[in-house]
TrEMBL record:
Gfo/Idh/MocA-like oxidoreductase N-terminal domain mapped to chain residues: 5-134
InterPro entries: Gfo/Idh/MocA-like_OxRdtase_N, Gfo/Idh/MocA_oxidoreduct, GFO_IDH_MocA-like_dom, NAD(P)-bd_dom_sf
Superkingdom of the organism of origin: Bacteria
PANTHER family: CONSERVED EXPRESSED OXIDOREDUCTASE (EUROFUNG), OXIDOREDUCTASE
Organism encoding this protein: Paenibacillus ginsengarvi
Name of the protein described by the UniProt record: Gfo/Idh/MocA family oxidoreductase
A UniProt-annotated Pfam family: GFO_IDH_MocA_C3
Any one GO molecular-function label of the UniProt entry: nucleotide binding
Amino acid sequence: MNRVLRFGMVGGGEGALIGDIHARGATFDRKSALVAGCFSRDAAKSEITARKWGIDSDRVYATYREMAEKEAAREDRIDYVSIVTPNNSHYDIAKTFLEHGFHVVCDKPLTVELAEAEELKRIAEQNGLLFCVTYTYSGYPMVKQAREMVQRGEIGDIITVMAEYPQEWVLHASKLSWRMDPSQGKSCCVADIGVHIAHTVSYITGLRIDSLCADMLSHGPLMELDNNANMMVKYTSGATGMYWCSQVAAGSRNGLKIRLFGTKGSLEWQHDRYEELQLALSGKPLQLLARGRDPMFPAAAAFNRLPGGHPEGLYEAFANIYAAFGAELSGILDGSGSGAAADYPRIDDGIDGVRFIDKCLESSQGGVKWVPYS
């Protein structure tokens, strides 16, 4: 398709971190343009955001329902909507836009309740609509390279997985944020960053959880929800895993780390060295593989944007997800079918994230017991 995709955004008003990252990622390659939005319940903030992105005033809406209805009636309607609001609003917003015939990109976790996530899938499939859930780390080229290496058996069969995601921001919180508010969700830490562990491991390895045992803990006077969690995992293949996520880990910034141990060797990726993979093959010297320098499989190299030594980070990871989604959507809109089966996280990944949260809660609240994942 030779035209730029048009999209709208719900959430992401002035001062919102994740909304701005989504907007920049979606427009990074100039293949999508932000043309409409309901950015905030605060009209002044919404107008500021609209002016920043050069959006006409008649396409700045007071509510997401008004936006869905009026955009659906336009000849130059948006092609998709990006939802970047707090978790407990995702379901209603996504359902409204799906019912008006719009493709959807939604931040994670997909919904609060599993039944809501499954209903969104049903509506999307009935209407032939794409649904992307933005699990960021699958957009990094070296995560894609790790996936290709595992799929090709370079480290053999996976024996065990060790994964962690520590942060420290809750230690410095002086007031309750929406993530910490039990009226807006059932989990803070696992819902915010634990799902990133689960998805990144699943994306790289293809492993599926058979059962898990979780201990979700809360530290500090502001917290009712979890801000530190330990999880043991058994996979259907017989492999095992240990996950840890924390928002009270002093000295930690955004420390996602995935270590995979197989019958032939091990592989490690960590977010603060996102352009590298550490490979250890049995009986051979330790190797450090660098993006843009060392050979990469085509499926991963296709997402490289700059030569080695020129860092590609978070914005580029989001851009890669939006580019893949946009490629498939363009193929649908122009009837060519190009971009089909593009590499981006889909609604099934979103459903699995909600299931992961639910199962961790079931285990932890049930006395830290093993629970089946199905």
